[in-house]
């Protein structure tokens, strides 16, 4: 007896939310960072290192995830972790609140979609191989 679960609608919903969330996050980050007229000459080296991971790495990861979910989500989540570790822990800067995680959350949705889609694809291939 085989139980088949149709994950097409949940997968489509996760993908839609990831894409919509990535557009919203990138737009809001753009408004926050460039709307405040950031002056590069006034940013310290330590702050530049933090900016490489957040928002630059986060944004690059979400853009890449539109075409290559696995890679893009790895860049997004990796940039977030690197931001907390390097900028927050190593350089002892206080990073408070959940805002950084919220802005990077579409990367987690892309990762979830990629994992589930890979699982469904492998399961279908495995079941096809077993019935042949």
Share in β-strands: under 5%
Measured between the Cα atoms of the first and last residue, the distance is 17 Å
Number of DSSP-assigned strands: 0
- Unreliable segments of 5+ consecutive residues: none
Q: How big is the Rg?
A: 18 Å
Helix-strand category = mainly alpha
| Total helical segments | 4
List the main descriptive attributes of the protein structure presented here.
elongated, 132 residues, mainly alpha
Detailed description of the structure:
Helices cover 79% and strands 0% of the residues. By secondary structure, the protein is mostly helical. The protein has one domain. The longest helix is centred in the C-terminal third of the chain and has 33 residues, at 99-131.
Put the structure in a nutshell.
The protein has 132 residues and is mainly α.
